[in-house]
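Tutorial handout. Part one gives the primary structure; part two gives the three-dimensional structure as tokens.
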Amino acid sequence: MTSPRRSRLVAAVCLAAAAALAAGCSKEEGSGTASSDTSQGAQVVQSPSADSSGSGCTLEAYGATKIDLKNAVVGFSQSEKEANPFRIAETQSIKDEAAKLGVKKLLTTNAQSQLSKQISDIKDMLAQGAQLLIVAPLNSDGLEPALQAAAAKHVPVITVDRKLNATACKDYVAFLGSDFVEQGKRAADAMIQVTGGKGKVAILLGSSGNNVTTDRTKGFVDQLKAKAPGLEIVAQQTGEFARDKGQQVMEQLIQSKPDITAVYAENDEMGLGAVTALKGAGKKPGKDVKIVSIDGTRNAVQALADGQYNGVIESNPRFGPLAFDTAQKFFAGESIPENVIISDRAYDASNAKESLSGAY
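Part two.
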């Protein structure tokens, strides 16, 4: 016999599921939402010969204390507001995996793109008893006060999606994420393919101060120089990884560089902003101006399927399983590589429609 309490619980779960389904069906392209289904498109670590550099870090070398995550307080520091599908999916993945493992308490904060706030967020989580920190750094530099506070309490720090200019196994345990130079090279290869290796390219740069922007730019520029000198880079301006800023920069470039034939956006949000700008100028994105970007958001893959985009290189944000698996291995005494590099897929016109379910 089902108890009244259980009946109410089941009804509430069903209503929540129905509401989520309805919200997903009515989602608009510009909503900034992302798929929370972390079972789709799970991260895959590259082979051991390619996924690490450095001598590795152990619990003993780091000076941390062994803990059981089920009885632990874990802190997750998000760097940017969750209006970006990458950040939404990343945070949700951390929450989902913590719940799956039965972590005693998960603390989550959001720095809202403010370095000073991220430092204070991390210190606050330490004050609340955090025994492990998973950090998505806003910048590669500047988090030293937070790292020092964690080190003083011997609390391990695992960084995801952006690297720190700091010392592994001293300031942090390991970096988990993509090879951003390789992403830039693959974006260049995609651009060469869709343009025939000729044209005038504008680069919408990500935000300054982090290795993602630097590496994605280097990979792309170096690959064009080596493989397609006929593709001339005529502009490089920051869109700060934001859709509205990407649109604004593209609108300016259409006026100042009307002969642009291709756009490389260092994330999908800026690329989608460029699509809006091009449409507003009476141009056909994907045809008059080729667009290649990096991330793998559902909106960008949909634009690719619709012919308004030409290529997307994935940057997988679903760090929950890998972050907690790395932490468990670390607390079990295993040596953790300085860099744990994941594999990223690529989307093009041939696979976009069938790949939508794996995008975020």
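Part three, for discussion. The first helix runs from residue 4 to 25. Residues 1-39, 48-54 have pLDDT under 50 and may be disordered.
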